[in-house]
Amino acid sequence: MDPESDYCLDEDDSERSDGVAQPDETVLSPRESSKGKFSSLEKPGSDRTVVETDDDKDDDSERVTVKRPANGAPAHRPFKRQRGIVNTDYLDMLNMDIDDAAQRVCLDDEVNLPSAQIGLTRWSSLEKQQLFEAISRLGRHDVSGIANRVRSKSLIEIQQYIGFLHEACNVKRKADRRSILVRAEFPAAVEMSQACCHAQDEIADAISLRQEQRETLREETIWGPNWDVTLAVAAKLSAAEADQPPPFSQLFTLRRWLMLSERIFMNSSIPSSNWNYVDDVRPSVRATAFEDFHSLTVSITRRLVQATLFISMSRIRAKRELVVSTRSVVTRKDVEAAIASLGMSVDSRDWWRKSARRLRLAVCEEPLDRDADADDEPMTYDEVEAALREGEARGVDADPPASTAIPDGGADSVQDSDSDSDGGSNGDSTAEDDEPGKEEEFDIDCEAREILHYAAADLRDVASTRQALRRRIATERQQEEQADQCDRYASYQAETKMWKVLQRNPPAERATVYHARPLKRSILHVESIYPVRNEWTSQVDYCGEWETMDENGRA
């Protein structure tokens, strides 16, 4: 998007301003939003939709119903995007984040690392920033992943630099027992308040709607009136009256694709993921998205056919050396072997079986009288998956269950048990909550006893050892509290900066967070009493694969 453009809206768009913005909306990048438009539509008169389990026949006996979360279309759609004036500062920040995500690196302008030469390798300032950014995200043991992010250095060069840094840290620890960095100096993710998130959603809605308007003009230029495939457009493209139907209309049943969006993918029991609570336009798919799906289908099919022919020809060639009369026939096992070689699944039954749980659908068994207004309780996800599994078992090629089902109740029962246990623990609380000092001492004593009895059983449980251990535990707790204070202040600063970008004033009830006190450093830490073996890699020797095999070549 062009930040210099005027993003003020026309008055004819004011009719779309009902509802309030919510934080559940997401801003799509231009590439994502061009794949398809998923609008919403007014809910039909029935409060449930029927999902056909047979792709080829409209058999009424093989149906389940997905119940609507409400009996009628909501007059107020709280998740509808709101139009407004685009904030160019927020747009610039969004474009920077998109660039960072595309390049898979977030470079800090305030950090200026000097170039250096390690051995025979020259490291520029940009390469060093990319290296440290990759290490912070992947860890120092994922050398191949770090090399993929740096790109300009080989695995050996990166491993050499990491070894150089590790050796320098060891030298520093021998000269000074204090830690190079305390916990408060490690940056943590900042947190934004709910009010700030709502304000960002309103600005994001204005950007996404403006972006969608430009993409609509581009799509209309390419596809004409058929750029947005609705049920009416799908019927016209699939009919024989179309002069030059696009290739995807001859391969796909467009009506079923649209019904999948309306009844499955955008029909969640969660209002923010249900199209009825977002807009009053029925879901549709852009023609560009269908074209991409068509290209993907053709590409995968071509690749699968090539792999199948290669495997079948290799099998036939090897078998003809023993049996000359072997026929040149592609078998089913050849296709299955080709699918396995490409890393593809044999079928998608397990994926569809778990779609109700994944998409949070409210599924009900269809009553005998479809005109009756029966308010059935939704089936549990275990019951839905069991019913679909039984339907597959009646088929010829029914596949076995891919995984063990969760006991009846699923995640809800686990959540209930967790809440019960939490409630029990809260009920056992005593007057110790009113005495934080004694509670802190009690926690320190418990942690010290745990270390002496389990983590460091070889230490003598004497008064001097317990006292030294308690001092170190108390010091680490103080450092944790210090780090929490620094994190709260960093979040406060980041949110203040965000309010300035949004050109809005923060809420009056927002509490002020002051800068933390000067950082306290200490040489007291629990690891000084007993080794916890954090550097486990220094005690592990690499063993080649050939060294683990016996004389017969078996591991």
Key features?
mainly alpha, 17 helices, 555 residues, disordered N terminus, extended
Describe the protein's architecture and organization.
It is a single chain. It is built from 17 helices and seven strands. The chain is mainly alpha-helical. The two termini are 57 Å apart. It is extended, with a radius of gyration of 31 Å. Helix 3 runs antiparallel to helix 4. Among the domains are: 118 residues, no CATH class; 96 residues, no CATH class.
Explain briefly what this protein structure is.
The chain is mainly alpha-helical and 555 residues long. It has helices spanning 30-33, 88-103, 125-138, 143-150, 155-175, 194-223, 231-238, 247-251, 254-265, 287-320, 332-341, 349-353, 355-359, 381-393, 410-427, 436-455, 463-502, and strands at 48-52, 63-67, 116-118, 121-123, 228-229, 285-286, 363-364.
Uncertain runs are: 1-71, 396-432
Q: Which oligomerization state do the chains in this entry correspond to? A: single chain
Helix content bin: 40-55%
- The average pLDDT is 76
What is the C-alpha radius of gyration, as a whole number of Å? 31 Å
Please list the strands of the largest sheet in the order they lie side by side. 1-2-7
Main β sheet profile: 3 strands, antiparallel
Number of strands: 7
Helix and strand composition category:
mainly alpha
Cα end-to-end separation: 57 Å
Beta-strand portion reads under 5%
User: Which geometry do the CA atoms define?
Assistant: extended
Put simply, the count of helices is 17
What is the N-to-C order of secondary-structure elements (H for helix, E for strand)? HEEHEEHHHHEHHHEHHHHEHHHH
Region (Disordered): 1-81, 392-440
GO cellular component, one term: RNA polymerase I upstream activating factor complex
Organism: Drechmeria coniospora
GO biological process, one term: nucleolar large rRNA transcription by RNA polymerase I
